[in-house]
Design goal:
This protein is of the alpha/beta class and about 375 residues long. It has 2 domains: about 5-165 and about 305-355, Response regulator (Rossmann fold, 3-Layer(aba) Sandwich); about 170-300, Rossmann fold. Helix content is about 35%, strand content about 25%. It has an 8-stranded mixed sheet with strand order 3-4-6-5-7-8-9-17, with helices on both faces. Strands 11-10-12-13 form a 4-stranded parallel sheet, with helices on both faces. It has a two-stranded antiparallel sheet with strand order 1-2. Helix 1 packs parallel to helix 9 and helix 4 crosses helix 5 (about 200-215). The longest helix has 17 residues, at about 75-90. It is elongated and about 60 Å long. It binds alpha-L-rhamnopyranose. Alpha-L-rhamnopyranose binds next to helix 7.
């Protein structure tokens, strides 16, 4: 997918707007089993297709599970597309389980259950570094490989083998401020609508947004509030409504979460205040297309989530087979995504970050 981008257009502090061709998601052979185990959640099993059986050593088919923050978020569906693509190529048995809500400790029973089931690797988007790290450390002691994807165990990186992140958090924070500044002419009050209070990725981005706001360029841009929609659509809409009531002079909302930005756009569209309140942040083009086309949202950003899933699947199998060694500075080949490198604390960056607007939104299918 990334390799098919044909032309780079625009650079905002490292966020690149790309014109793409043929970035359609591949169709996967998926069966969904919604009967959950003892914990509430969804299980999706994907047959590994007709690919080679490289995923298993000596005929063994590796069992790899993905645990996203919660069920029902299409962003994680896109991460799963990449994991399923890697499963088809590498022949591992793929499944996914997740809690219904993105609460800090909600993934713990799922982690324990999967370890008990005898999976070879757990790929996880953690809801909380502190709370999740303890359970994952126990899992690693059982020789199960652990890879974080999309969000990391910030401060507890020794509780996983590697972390796959879309871009460095500082660039994301800077770019979100720059987006808001560009849309408001660098002036006025704005608020952040985030996911959960524990979310490691959102918290890192917010930290760097606050650092960026210290710069003289942004002296007239004022962050008045940070609220949390918990990556729940209804709560995110309620939080947006409350912001509009509490801050009559609000000029913008930055939602660094795909659930939040969509909810904020819905509310702003409903109140017909898009000219006054600029909504931006991180979102899926497939969910935001309508709002961009009708002018509710002028610009927002993201990366291709499925690249992270694909890379995580490739790394998991590489680690299990011993073909990949996770160590800072080590390079490895990740299938169709080519060569990648483990950075500090075994973080691998996929990128590239993209900015979407009316001119390019139709080119993106995820
Ligand atoms: C939401 C999730 C996810 C984040 C995206 C941008 O879907 O919180 O972790 O990376 O937004």
């Amino acid at each position: 997918m990334t390799g098919k981008y044909s032309r780079r257009l625009f650079l905002t502090l490292g966020f690149t707007s790309l014109i793409v061709s043929g970035c359609e998601k591949g169709n996967q052979n998926t069966t969904t089993d919604t009967s959950s185990g003892s914990s509430s959640g969804t299980t999706t099993n994907t047959s590994a297709g007709t690919g080679s059986n490289e995923g298993g050593a000596g005929g063994k088919k590796y069992k790899i599970v993905y645990i996203p923050k919660n069920t029902g978020n299409p962003y994680f569906g896109a991460v799963e597309d990449g994991l399923k693509k890697a499963a088809t190529e590498l022949g591992y048995e793929y499944s996914s389980v997740a809690p219904a809500t993105a609460d800090a400790g909600a993934q713990i029973p799922f982690i324990k259950e999967q370890a008990q089931r005898g999976v070879d690797a757990i790929i996880i988007t953690p809801n909380s570094p502190e709370v999740t790290a303890r359970a994952l450390k126990e899992v690693m002691a059982k020789k199960i490989r652990v890879i974080t994807v999309d969000a990391d165990l910030t401060g507890h990186e020794d509780s996983r083998d590697a972390g796959i992140l879309p871009t460095d958090a500082k660039t994301t924070g800077q770019s979100l401020v720059e987006l808001m500044s560009g849309l408001t002419g660098g002036k006025g009050d704005f608020a952040i609508l985030s996911a959960t209070t524990d979310a490691p990725n959102q918290n890192q981005w917010i930290k760097y947004m606050k650092d960026t706001l210290q710069g003289p360029k942004y002296k007239d841009l004022k962050l008045v509030d940070t609220v949390y929609g918990n990556d729940d659509s209804q709560k995110s809409q309620r939080e947006t409504e409350a912001l509009l009531t509490k801050y009559p002079n609000l000029r913008g909302i930055v939602a660094p979460t795909s659930v939040g930005i969509k909810a904020a756009a819905q509310v702003v569209e409903g109140h017909k205040v898009a000219d006054k309140v600029q909504v931006t942040g991180l979102g899926l083009p497939s969910e935001m297309r309508r709002f961009v086309k009708n002018g509710t949202v002028k610009k927002f950003a993201l990366w291709n989530p499925s690249d992270m899933g694909y890379l995580a699947g490739q790394i998991a199998v590489g680690l299990l087979k011993g073909d990949i060694k996770a160590a800072p500075g080590t390079t490895f080949k990740a299938g169709s995504l080519g060569e990648h490198k483990f950075g500090d604390k075994n973080v691998v960056i996929t990128g590239p970050p993209l900015v979407f607007d009316q001119a390019n939104i139709d080119q993106f299918k995820f």
